[in-house]
Structures are given as C-alpha cells and as structure tokens.
User: Fold this.
Amino acid sequence: MQKILITGSNGLLGQKLVYKLKLDNTVQLIATARGENRLLDQVGYEYCSLDISDEKNVNDVLSKYLPDIVIHTAAMTNVDACELQQDECKKMNVDSVLYIVSALEKLKSESYKPHLVHVSTDFIFDGTKGPLDEDEMPAPLSYYGWSKLEAENIVTKSNLKWSIARTVLVYGVVDNASRSNIVLWAKGALEQKKNINVVNDQFRTPTLAEDLADGCILIAKKSAEGVFNISGPNYMHILELVTRVADFWKLDKSLITPSTSEGIKQPAKRPPNTGFIIDKAKTVLGYKPHSFEEGLALVDKQLTKIN
Assistant:
C-alpha cells in the first residue's frame, strides 16, 4: 500500500488528485490544506490541516505520516498578488518548499526513501519562444516566476528522489465553485453579456485540471524522476482560447475585444509565448491529455451536475 500525501488539497489540482486517488485501493491517501477540509466528499481518505508556511507544522505532519510520496500542489498562484505581496509569495512558494524538503531529508533513511513530486509552471520562462520542451533555459519575468524557479532549484539540489511537473494555464471546476480560472471567467462574463478585453499576444497550451492530476499520478505510480511538461495538447493564444469557449457554449463573440498585453495593465509581466511540448510525458509516462474541446465538454458536464 502506497502512502500518498497531497498538499493544497482544497485547491483545483488538489481536489482532482484527492477524487482520483481515493478510488485507488492500493493507495492510503492523506489530504492536507490550510484550515478545514472544503471538499464536498470527505470519505475514503484522511484529512489533516497543514500550513506549509509553518516549519514546525510541516515537520510534525510529515513525521506523523511518513508518506512514500508527497505531491506538493499548494502555492500562491495569483501572479499579480505575488508581485504586490512578495514577502507572502516567498513564504508560500519558496520557504514552504525548503521546509518540506528539509523535513523529508531529515526523515529519510535506509528503509524510508520518500519521493517528492513538485508542481511548477511555465512562468519560469521569459516567453521569447514556444512551445517549450523540458530543456528550455528558465528566465522568469515576474516575482511569481522567480519564486517557482527558486522552489525548483531547492527540489533539484535536494538529496531526495524528486520529480517536477511543470504546467500551463490550468482550468476546471472545483467544489463550491469557489475559484475561477480563464475558462470559467470567459464563460461567466459572456453569459452576463459583459464586454471583455482579451490578449491576442500571449500563447499557451491550456491544461485541464484532471489531466494535470493524471500526469502527477503517473509520475508517482511509475516512480518517474526528473522534469516533465504536463499540459494540454493544443497551442493557442488567449484570444483564440476565449473565442473557442464562446463557440463551445454558443455565446456572443462580438463582446470580445482583442487587446495587446500592453493594453491590459497588470502589475506582473506575463511571458508572451510559452506552451509546452509534451512528448516526454506521453512517451515516458503514457500521458494522454484531453483536447481543449474535450476538456470544455467535461467542464460543462461538471457545471450541469452542480446546477
């Protein structure tokens, strides 16, 4: 029986991991997040409150459970908030990783060899070209990007068994619909007949949250080490993404106004061109992501169920 501990289980990716892994009878699952468990389904796994920015809390929880695998999804991911609250961002995205790595290194022994699966981002790159493979040189443009690269460096320099799952622009539906993302934002705004400005000079490979969860689980199950790009298969600019959302739900595209990144004032710089080449994940892990429209169909089904 593999003991898997997930950080950030209240978040979008964390929830998907819990709901997939709790069905696996070869896994003993521990879900952790700050505060109370916000998942609607609380059966089939153990929940433990964990503040990753509290070193003692991290040490206590990891030494209590001694997980075989830690899938670390918890992070501060609002790019503009990270730019404006850099101390908080460093605490959540850098210090926390140091605490997790240090705790696991201290616990590691001949009989206990934990595997850390760390989730990272395309924002560690400057976006001068794309799509990118795993060997691309990082050069972050924002504080968020810097913090995630620092975290990667802590992981890669550790003496743990480690893997990094880098991803791009994750979308999906969470319990209680508490968090938005590009797909839900576009759908919601267009349904409310709002005019929206959308950038046409940022290219990505949008990722369905279920696919990212599958990628992380494949890494864990196959004991795969190293860096893996885990994203969707379709490369497009954000304007095309939003247009495809409008087409899928038959919404009014005349409400969408194309804009440049310069035209939309945001505190943090975005890399213009990222998106991932996912050949390694497909070949090594057997990763099979949904197409963008298949992802939207799954989102639609989940939203219908909620409503």
